[in-house]
Amino acid sequence: MSDTTPPGWRNWSRLEKARPARVVTPTDADEVGVIVREVAERGGTLKVTGTGHSFTPIAVPEDVLLRPEGLSGVVGIDREAMTATVRAGTPLHELNAELTRAGLSLHNMGDIDRQTVSGATSTGTHGTGGVAASLAMQLSALELVTGDGSVLRASRTENADVFAVARVGLGALGVLTELTFDVEPLGVLEAHERTMPWDEALASYDEILAANHHADLYWFPHTDVVQVKTNNRLDAEPSVAEPLGRVRRFVDDELLANGAFGVVNAVGNRAPRLVPPLARLSAGLLSERRYSDVPHRVFTAPRRVVFREMEYAVPREAGMAALREARALVEKEGWRISFPVEIRYAPADDIALSTASARDSVYLAFHVNRRTDHTAYFRGVERVMREHDGRPHWGKLHTRTAADLAPAYPRWDEFQAVRDRLDPRRVFVNAHLRTILGP
Ligand SMILES: Cc1cc2nc3c(=O)[nH]c(=O)nc-3n(C[C@H](O)[C@H](O)[C@H](O)COP(=O)(O)OP(=O)(O)OC[C@H]3O[C@@H](n4cnc5c(N)ncnc54)[C@H](O)[C@@H]3O)c2cc1C
């Protein structure tokens, strides 16, 4: 284990910075246990970070920072049970690479693969559609070092009460050291991207969901254009996949989605009045494309333009109304928004503090460039989301507190009871967790 006096820490969006008193990089659960006991005995706090991709201060270390790098790598694959066990600090892209080599795959993923498996599951990171939209819902077991330094395993059959809440544990229940994911045979996903007029896309949203395994929509503010991306499982071997050629991938994903988009944002920052015409120009350039590939290469893409994001889950039935109201507000307020609004769907799940807990959900995600002040836009839209009983993504910006989050989650007390049991001395807290979960 390495134990150092730290350089500073900052998150991906550069909104949060910290100078922890000490940085530790343990290499197994026993070492984690020793550190937790030390910190608990002197009344300190310990924060595990992933890769810092949360926009909220949820990962900010205030005393001891436990870095994930010493707890990385795939532990084993069980082909009979169809599971893969990984150490908790493993980045998702490493898990994907290992699974692909083994002819296996996760069921669903979000838009990027840079996060750690533990960071991503802990905040409810999700993709869209499928039978499980979040990474946490693909877990079948976990190992956790709790507030007294002891190691606890949980699954649907072992410590089931802990498993019910700790898959989306917000980093508040202990240090995850190992996660076991359900996996499936490596298949092929066919992606189809095209644009639709706003009215048609919103009117046919239910049909789009019913007809496709995964659907991801992007509305371009200041336009009537909605980009619809659907991904469907082909009944075929990976060898039949027709991925985008290297040149097309470079042009689409690097030059247009990151390079040109970065330029559009830079111009918009200097001259906000140009945002609407630039948005119309960019939306007009979107072309239809189809390709197929192994799932993680279809789900994820690089994101190089640094942005800020708020995302809310509203009940599925309220999704399109909430989106319409958000658009009306943007137009009424005259905000100039250069990032598309992303629209995704998750089936109801059974995790206490998952944003899709016990209800089918539509996710609406709002972004701005990191040099744009997000406060008025996010606050305004947040009011709309709250009117629709929205639940904020735990890793993305919001202004909610424990007092108003508790009524949004029917199983709130169940989470708190496990928290009191596993971390009675509140070793795993920071100011943000006290705000959103209470003392
Ligand atoms: C460019 C970008 C794209 C994104 N795309 C999506 C998306 O498509 N879908 C989506 O839902 N979200 C998305 N997110 C949000 C992101 O997935 C979450 O914020 C996620 O939590 C980040 O993982 P991380 O490894 O960076 O964890 P961090 O942000 O570093 O930590 C998050 C929380 O996990 C806790 N934690 C980390 N490791 C452990 C551990 N071993 N034990 C206990 N607790 C732990 C931390 O203490 C903290 O509370 C995106 C974010 C960015 C910046």
UniProtKB/TrEMBL annotation:
InterPro entries: ALO_C, FAD-bd_PCMH, FAD-bd_PCMH-like_sf, FAD-bd_PCMH_sub1, FAD-bd_PCMH_sub2, FAD_lactone_oxidase-like, Oxid_FAD_bind_N, Oxy_OxRdtase_FAD_BS. PROSITE patterns: FAD_PCMH, OX2_COVAL_FAD. Residues 16-186 form the FAD-binding PCMH-type domain. One of its GO terms (cellular component) is membrane. Keywords: Ascorbate biosynthesis, Oxidoreductase. GO terms for biological process: L-ascorbic acid biosynthetic process. Transmembrane segments: none annotated. This is FAD-binding protein. It comes from Nocardioides guangzhouensis. The lineage of its organism: Bacteria, Bacillati, Actinomycetota, Actinomycetes, Propionibacteriales.
